[in-house]
Amino acid sequence: MRGAMADYLDDETDEAPDSAKDRDFVEKVLRKFDSAYVPVQEERALNLQDRRFAVIAGAQWEGPWADMAENSVMVEINKTAQGVEKIEADYRANRMIVDFRGVGLGADEETADTLDGMFRADYYVSKGQLATDNAFQEAVQGGMGAWRLKNVYYDEHDPDDERQRVAFDMIGDADQSVFWDPNARLPDKSDAMWCVVITAMSKDAYHEEYGEESCTEFPKGLVKPFYDWFPPEVVRVAEYYEVELKAQKLHVMRHRATSEERREWAGDLAEGELEQLEQEGWRLLRSRNVKRRRVKKWVLSGAEVLEKGRHIAGTEIPIIMVYGKRSYIDNLERTRGHVRLAKDPQRVYNTQISKLTETAATSPVERPIVDPEQIAGYANDWAEANINRSPFLPLRALRNPDGTVAVAGPLGMLTPPQLPPVLAALIQQTGADIAELTSSDDGAAMTQSNVSADAMDIAAQRTDAKSAIYMDNMKSAWKRCGEVWMSMTRDNLVVEGDEVEIMSNDDSPSMDTAVIAERVTDDKGHRIRNDIARGKYHVIVDVTEATATQRDKTVKRCLNGAQIVGATDPELSTALTLTAFMNMDGEGIGDLKDWARQRALSIGLVKPTPEEQQAMEQEAANQPPDAQTNALQAQAEALQASAVKDAALADKAKADTQLSLAKVGQTEADAAKTRSEIGRGEQEHKVGMFERLKQGAGSFFSPKPNGGKPGGPEARQ
Q1: Within 10 A of 502 (CB to CB), how many other CB atoms are there?
Q2: Residues 6+ apart with CB under 8 A from 464
Q3: At 461, is the secondary structure helix, strand, or coil?
Q4: How much is the CA Rg of the chain, to the nearest whole Å?
Q5: Cys-Cys with 82: which of 411, 420, 440, 508 at CB 3.0–4.6 Å?
């Protein structure tokens, strides 16, 4: 059955069928079960008794208390249920939300928002509210409740859809069906190594699932101090979860092109898959042996293994516990709910009311005691006096022998017993004790008309403080639920590019889809979006009020704020008033809310939806411009023309400047040429003159004897 197998990661088992081995395994589980169940037998019986005391009619007289009132009137006025119902109402009015927050490298806000949406979608689709509400109710009544998480297919009837999601499943009678490793000390049982969950099935369902020949019930264990005349005929089976820690080789790889890193367990890779990854560009960086934490699940009867052990999604046992009030005393976990301390006052109250009722029912009304001679002939008148409403009744006087009247009236009166003052005081005291212990009376009936709203809020906070511990324990359970859900979701073998459902958390929640591990290129560069397999995410649990309560407070605060700032900031006052109108709830105010939103859009108070934006653009395009718009447009055109003219003049001035610069350059070039020509002429003139002078005075330049030295013979001549 495909849907049933979704709880497991695969359909294979590493254990061969072996009846002897199975019997040994069942014996081992039964020994573990005894070690967990025997020490808490008395505590769990009290948990069940508390739940019956608050819910089942007549259960307040179960046990030895009924033996003392045998053959007597047993009235039951259930005052303990009022306090329980008030705490449950507080929880339903203040729902809890799981919020994932990214921590460190590899985590981002966008992926955290996607995880939030996936969690809400899984919770909504699997009707998780029924499971969590039942667990909280059992915790408040008896002291402990639980729910489980399991894998299911998105569509069990579509053989091509391999996507899986995490579903929330209810566990009924958690105090009778969930037993943990005795060595676990933490309230959320995150340190437990095994757990047994007993599930009751009808015989027909058991026979259809496992066959008639294997119909051996798992021990129910706990002894009940009461007897049900018509209990349902069921067969109990056990789900056994065990944490497995085994050393396995972990491969760390990096892609050559994108530098992305991935981790793969060697045991999860098929033969040849590592080589295929290397061909796809993944380079093996390192491998090391790591203790891998996994969880295996078996289904057992009292004598055999009904379903072999298989690995389930996640690294945690998927059972979520919630407690009313939990203590650890004498090495034993002890829990109680809101009913335990009020049971004895409730029993005393019921006993006194029963005694009073019995007395009133069996005691006679006030009747006269007369001699038979006194009513001789008038017996019918006296018997029918109440029916006929006779104004008087005749009665013969008893006379002495001499005829004188001896007794004129009745001989005496038979009166009912008087209520002892101590009984009245006891009834009043026990009623007050029950109201104080269960917080069933919040004082609303004593509210006076002149009490301020702030004083009422303070009184309500004092009353709500009595349910704070239950709400805080539920927050711890939700935190653990988010951690287990995250572990299972990451281990669901989600394929890159798969679409998952997400759900918004606004006033009108809607379903949408997101793509897991989607490769995108945007302003942040090339990246992988919604990569839920990477990064660490912490689980934060927020308590939110019901939508109606939030809206009422928003309307009240906005109107008060509008009144305060009305004189100093009319624009802010208008914005606050419009916000109040948009959050109002009531009959016939839909048009007003729409008008308020349109006005808020016109002043920019709210962002338009895509449909509203399109409608606004279309309206602006179809609307003819008014005179002011035309004037502004003409002015804009004139300014544009002036700007074009100024640009043209600037271009002309630039061109003239360039022309002038070109002329100046040409002039300088001509001057340089002229200077060069003049220089060459002067040089040539000087050379010519030198040559002429040389030719005219040739003897002057001719060689002389003795080298032309002065004082020679020629010189002396």
Answers
A1: 21
A2: 90
A3: helix
A4: 49
A5: 440
Dist CA 576 CA 566 (whole Å): 10
Opening angle at CA 581, ends 577 and 584, nearest 5: 135
Beta-bridged to residue 289, according to DSSP, are 249
Alpha-carbon span 495 to 530, nearest angstrom: 12
| Contact yes or no for 179/195 (Cβ under 8 A) | yes
Higher pLDDT, 432 or 25: 25
Lowest-confidence segment of 204-218, 249-263, 666-680 by average pLDDT: 666-680
Where is 97: in which H helix or E strand?
Answer: strand 96-103
What are the pLDDT digits (tens) for 429-473? 777 766 766 665 555 444 444 555 555 454 455 455 678 889 999
List C-alpha distances in Å: 686 to 678, 681, 691, 698: 12, 9, 9, 18
How many C-beta atoms lie closer than 10 Å to residue 476's C-beta?
Answer: 18
Pairing, β 405-407 against β 398-399: antiparallel
Between CA 501 and CA 513 the distance in angstroms is 4
Strand partners, 539: 100
DSSP line for 330-350: TTEEEEE-SSGGGHHHHHHHH
Burial class (CB in 10 A: 0-12, 13-18, 19+), 45: middle
Q: What is the pTM of this model?
A: 0.69
Tokens of 179: 């037993």
Identity of the amino acid at 673: K
Cα(662)–Cα(652) distance, rounded to whole angstroms?
15
Q: Which tokens in the block code for residue 43?
A: 């505590």
- The amino acid sitting at 638 is A
Tell me the β-bridge partners of 543: 96
> Tokens in use for 221?
């264990």
pLDDT digits (tens, 9 = 90+) for 546-603: 555 566 777 888 888 888 888 888 888 888 888 888 888 777 787 888 888 888 888 8
Dist CA 89 CA 545 (whole Å): 12
Distance CA 711, CA 666 (A): 64
Residue tagged 């609303």 (tokens):
444
Question: Tokens at residue 513, please?
Answer: 């889809």
**3-class DSSP assignment, residue 598:** helix
